[in-house]
Design brief:
heterodimer, A: about 375 residues, mainly alpha, 16 helices, globular, B: about 250 residues
Chain lengths: ~375, ~250
């Protein structure tokens, strides 16, 4: 069966939107998923990551057994971990440069908690243990932890897909209701993405992806379900859009904001409204964008698809580029032309590197052909 | 360079007019900020009534390190609450106006709400200036908790019939790479908006001063830091007085 380009397309799209959202005060951020839903690109990224992980490693589990699949997964975990450490080093370089200002007493008293450069030995250990998560470096630790637990999820999925879903739901409920979350240092700080909350979305994605292997769909389906999702999507879109307009233009009334707005804020634990909003949006999307949809083969979406197919590299690159872009905006000027230039250069950089990786992959695969048996599966996760 | 020269000229020319005792007041134009940054539909009716009736007015400024204002030297003497008091007294001669400084460094919104009974309610203020958000952002408290703490604080103040002015974070072009203030600024402004509370956009005002070259917040020589803080606090006091006069008209 041909590759489902929708996965690549939407993952590529979420990478672009994460890049946009990571640049503070970026005007384009008003046009991301958040403008029309309570969820944003992070949900898309984690869901599709779960989906493709189940697809790729599920196949590997069928063909080569649990030990091989686990080894493959941990090879990926290692890559992600190295990427995280690399990004941490880059981040530290930028922060060291900005640190001088914080010595100014006008800011020092307030910002004193950002003193990790005063105790670099602790900061480095914390970063290696994934508990130090400065801005930008929050989604990779989540992904690493989720993938590290994935062999277990995969074995449960193979046994009975409802089993991991039920366990995962229980964990999610405890994370929401009882505030279960991993401990971090310094005390009082928490993971920006609580893995105990976000694992639910990842497992939902994995269960959906695994259905392509097992042939059994563990979720409701049928017309009523689709219509319900369409309705939820429409109502949430109307509300979100009215809020977006209201925050930009005060006289426009925000629809349901007093009732709903605070309940959409909890991104850390994946607030139920965000989850529902994302799932409804996903069902709606699948309803309108079919697997053989013609637009997936048009020239304009090709760059996004290529980016989505090399998501780890492009994700890391997008973090580096957004840190760089932010630095340029803060250092020189943050007018609208400059913002436009930074966004454009960021997109161009991501697309160029994705095409380079694509070319390299194809060139590598061609002549000898001996190692091709295992290589594509890893490269396409 | 050109702009700096111009600014210097304005400053020197304005000095003889604006000087007040030993401490030179910054030129009025240096403190200026566009009206769009200060305007709001929210009113302060009780404060307005008391101003008109010339009744005594107590204002409590509760907040963090930048409210305590020790960075400008002389304890609280150069902090923005004192400057606000001076500005309001100058604008409303004959009305006994006191601004009480309750700034305590490094507290989250939740921790400030916890000291409301002792530091705010006991003083029966007409207006409470509540400067918060920085420490929540620094400690990356989740924004939902931040919004919840703001809402509960606003509800508690309203129950005591105090009028409220929220004040957001200080701006510096460099701090944004250390801390992402944006979600916290958005949350503070949006909570204020939905709760119909006045929010004083200190971040945007200071940013305007920085962007337009009125204050250089980055390259400050060591010996100048306290003086700069003092000037900024004075200007903030003036603009807050504008905001209060605007909302209490």
């Amino acid at each position: 069966m041909a590759r489902d380009l929708r996965l690549d397309f939407f993952r590529g799209l979420s990478l672009f939107l994460i890049f946009i959202d990571h640049i503070p005060e970026n005007l384009l951020a008003y046009g991301t998923f958040h403008a029309i839903a309570f969820s944003d690109a992070a949900e898309v990224f984690i869901f599709i990551s779960g989906f493709t992980a189940a697809l790729v490693y599920g196949k590997s589990l069928e063909e080569h057994g649990p030990l091989f699949a686990t080894a493959q997964i941990y090879r990926r975990v290692w890559q992600l971990y190295v990427a995280h450490v690399f990004l941490f080093v880059l981040f530290t370089a930028e922060v060291s440069y900005s640190m001088l200002v914080v010595r100014n007493p006008m800011y020092a008293d307030e910002m004193g908690v950002v003193d990790f450069l005063e105790t670099p030995h602790l900061a480095i250990i914390r970063a290696l243990l994934l508990v130090f998560q400065p801005t930008y470096l929050d989604i990779l630790p989540l992904y690493i932890v989720l993938l590290a637990a994935f062999p277990f999820i995969l074995l449960l999925l193979r046994k009975q897909p409802l089993l991991p879903l039920a366990l995962s739901l229980v964990l999610y409920v405890f994370a929401l209701g009882r505030g279960w979350a991993p401990k971090t240092l310094p005390e009082g700080q928490s993971w920006f993405f609580n893995p105990l909350g976000w694992q639910f979305l990842f497992v939902i994605g994995a269960a959906a992806g695994y259905s392509r292997i097992s042939g059994w769909w563990p979720f409701p389906r049928g017309k009523w379900f689709t219509y319900l999702a369409l309705l939820v999507t429409a109502v949430f879109a109307a509300a979100s859009l009215s809020w977006t307009i209201h925050w930009l233009y005060d006289p426009f009334p925000p629809f349901l904001a007093k009732q709903l707005w605070t309940h959409t804020l909890d991104k850390t634990d994946l607030a139920p409204l965000r989850l529902v909003s994302f799932l409804a949006l996903a069902v709606t999307t699948v309803h309108f964008v079919k697997r053989d949809s013609r637009f997936l083969h048009t020239r304009w979406v090709r760059p996004l698809i290529v980016c989505g197919q090399h998501s780890l590299y492009i994700f890391c690159l997008s973090i580096v580029l957004s840190v760089l872009g932010h630095f340029i905006l803060a250092e020189f000027n943050d007018g609208i032309p400059m913002q436009g230039a930074v966004n454009f250069c960021g997109f161009a950089g991501m697309i160029a590197v994705a095409y380079l990786l694509e070319w390299f992959k194809n060139a590598n695969r061609r002549p000898p052909g001996t190692r091709a048996a295992t290589q594509p599966a890893i490269a396409s996760e | 360079m050109m702009r700096h020269a111009l600014l210097l000229a304005v400053l020197v020319l304005a000095l003889p007019l604006g000087s007040e005792g030993a401490r030179a007041q910054p030129a009025p134009t240096q403190c200026a900020a566009p009206n769009e940054l200060l305007d709001s539909d929210v009113r302060l009716p009780e404060l307005a009534k008391r101003l008109r009736a010339r009744q005594p007015i107590t204002i409590v400024a509760i907040g963090g390190a930048s409210t305590a204002g020790t960075a400008a030297g002389d304890g609280e003497g150069n902090a923005y609450p004192r400057r606000l008091e001076e500005a309001l007294q100058r604008r409303h001669p004959g009305v006994p106006i006191t601004v009480i400084n309750k700034g305590v460094p490094r507290q989250t919104t939740d921790e400030m709400v916890a000291r409301f009974p002792r530091d705010v309610f006991a003083l029966h203020p007409t207006l409470v200036i509540w400067e918060t958000g920085t420490v929540d952002a620094v400690r990356s408290i989740d924004v939902e908790g931040f919004a919840g703490a703001l809402e509960s604080g606003i509800a508690a103040l309203r129950q005591q019939h105090a009028e409220i002015m929220l004040v957001d974070m200080q701006y510096n072009p460099k701090t944004s790479s250390l801390i992402n203030f944006e979600p916290y600024l958005d949350t503070l402004h949006r909570t204020a908006d939905l709760q119909e509370v006045y929010s004083f956009r200190r971040y945007d005002v200071m940013r305007y001063w920085s962007d337009s070259g009125r204050f250089d917040l980055v390259d400050v020589p060591n010996g100048r830091q306290a003086a700069l803080a003092g000037e900024i606090y004075r200007c903030l006091g003036e603009r807050m007085a504008d905001a209060i006069d605007h909302a209490a008209r």
